[in-house]
Amino acid sequence: MRTTFLPFSSPSISEEEIAAVGDVLRSGWITTGPNCGAFETEFAAYCGAADAIAVSSATGGMHCVLQALEIGPGDEVITPSMTWVSTANLICLLGATPIFADVDRETLMVTRETIEPLITEKTKAFIPVHYAGAAADMDPIRALAAERNIALIEDAAHAAGTEYKGERIGKKGTCIFSFHPIKNMTTGEGGMVCSDDPELLARVKSLKFHGLGVDAFDRQTQGRTPQAQVIHPGYKYNLTDISAVLGRGQLARLNGFNQRRAELAMLYREKLADTPEVLPLGIPDYQHLHAWHLFIVRLDIYKAGMERDAFMAALKEQNIGTGLHFRAVHLQKYYTETFGCHPGILPETEWNSDRICSLPLCPSMQDSDVDDVVAAIKTVLKKG
Ligand SMILES: *Cc1c(COP(=O)(O)O)cnc(C)c1O
After folding, report:
1. Per-residue model confidence (pLDDT) at position 228
2. What is the pTM of this model?
């Protein structure tokens, strides 16, 4: 057994990044400013996006996008239940209704087939998730959105560096990335909204900073009136330059991070091939480049003779950290009580929600760490 705890994830921060943060702290400009501007330009260029807006979290970015689309009371938004709770929460906070779509059992992603039957005249948007770093099958989903004239927002929190049919996620449509510490690159907390719709992006830019026409740095450098006018009431979701400079360093290393994640994921797949109690997610068969944000397995609770929560607790006893991405949203207290969601309505989501477990995966891991995780799994399953 390992003598030290292996966390499920830990960020890779270089000495250069630490020094760059120090330089910003000494520079006299620590909030949104030149580093945010450069980070937006560099991130947009990396994705091939027309433009990008840095925000203080993906959740803040999603809030601005939903608001910019004027989603509110009487509207329905189709989202997977297999996602982070922030999406459904925001839909509710805006007074709209989340409509939960089931996912493909093997990839945990919504498809045209799971979304289409849920469309009504109230449907204002769908929010597919590029799950675990794989790409959702966007061609059929984009076609459906275009046919029905419904907005499409891609939750790209797991998908920094993911490609779909030769194009990076972020190049097309409206995509929201997260830089939370467990994501493929981090700014501590932070996010980015990319969009090929300049009007939408202009609204997001204003909404992320009080609904003003310009932000504080624009005012200082461009000598506009010191008190800009509110165009529409907005939020306070700007990213700081302290965070942005870290993001610039991380972005420059993102492809290397993702390559290492892919190597570790392939090692897991190879070393778990003879352990039928744990079944990795399926890899989509359409052309894509996987960013390997997460390495998720599903526990066969009958073969293993234990429930997933007990499996995670037993791995912790073996000094192996794990994660749960995610517990189905529709079966959480507020959603069952408010919308009458009950077990049985989303069979594939629920089947996975009871069985998924994310194994440790981050670029700083050694091959021997994968060996330790696999050995611990075999011990827990009494195969060691
Ligand atoms: C992490 C995550 C978010 C939220 O990102 P924040 O930057 O923490 O707000 C949204 N959706 C998914 C699928 C995520 O994994």
Report:
1. 78
2. 0.97
